[in-house]
Amino acid sequence: MKTLSNFVLAAVGLVVSSITLHAYERLQGPTEVIYWDKTQTYNGYTFFGVRSNTYLIDMEGRVAHTWPVGTNPHLLTNGNVLDAFGGDVNGFAGLKEVDWSGNTAWQYTETRTNYSPHHDFLRIYNSKLGTNTTLYIAAKSVTSNQCVAAGCNPTNSTYTNAQVDAIVEIDMSGNVVWEWCFFDHGIQDYDASKSNYVGTGMSISNYPGRLNLNLPGRPVTNDWLHCNAIDYNTNLDQIVITTAGGEFYVIDHGKTFTAGNPAASIVLATRRVTVRAVRLRSRRIGLFPPPATSKSALAVMRNGFPPACRAQAIFWCSTTDATCSRLRHSPIFSRLTVI
């Protein structure tokens, strides 16, 4: 009986020690890397933001540097960090660039009341201007009258508080030098009196690269497309942007940009359709390939949404024939549909 009691006491002590150890690690213990297989990983640093702070950590998990921003930080080629401020990733007031010491090197505030920056942004080199500019996604408000004038069916919605995403480009002085909006690239088969009507004998499917403004069950509304990522290919002068609804779009920036004439650039961006639109059935992030790789493909990550698609996967997708090949994990979709 005494032996059994000693065994029970020892087991209880082991459990308590284990709980105490885990509590120590969680609350006050070391925060470095628990496990590192050097044969399966690249050696380098990890850059990420959390709770208004951005961290640079080495492969052992030790903090190498921090910055006082952390919404959606982007590490720039000059060593500075570009991030959003005045809100969270779903909506913020503007953008801020801080140097290595955390001092503000550049700042921009969106002052137009009908534009709401959100989610993603990008510092690019605009070859036509010969200098850097910044791209960002913004929800642009459109009125009910504008929706109806564009051919939206009034029986589908009142179109109150409608917003359609736009891509805005600003120079380093904060001037808007280019803008592209999905609302300008709509198509519809409801009102034949509108300029964006499909035409006699035609249908929505005859207009790849344009959006159906009367999508069944999805009328234009607040946060209609919910774009959440943007990237840019310097060599091609093209932009790729993704939507939570399951599509990504390649937009021709080069052929719609006129240096020194923002008004003309915006007019060109309004008239020219997207280069290619590709549909998936889950959210993802589109990334252009590095310059040394194919010019007609980009990497796509499925991030596990909706719940039926929890497993993450990365694909190499062609923008010419809509095929997709797996880079890692098991793909749920092996074929894309070009619209």
Beta-strand share of residues? 35-45%
Find the structural class using helix and strand composition.
Answer: mainly beta
Main beta sheet strand tally, sense and closure: 5 strands, antiparallel
Q: How are the strands ordered across the major sheet?
A: 14-15-16-17-22
Question: What is the helix fraction of residues, given as a range?
Answer: 10-25%
Total helical segments = 3
Q: Spell the H/E element sequence.
A: HEEEEEEEEEHEEEEEEEHEEEEEE
Query: Could you tell me the number of beta strands?
Result: 22
Write down the overall mean pLDDT: 80
Task: Describe the secondary structure blueprint for this structure.
Blueprint: H1 2-27, E1 46-50, E2 53-57, E3 63-67, E4 74-75, E5 81-85, E6 94-98, E7 104-109, E8 115-126, E9 131-142, H2 144-149, E10 162-170, E11 176-181, E12 186-187, E13 211-212, E14 227-233, E15 238-243, E16 247-252, H3 262-271, E17 276-279, E18 284-287, E19 297-302, E20 313-318, E21 324-328, E22 337-338
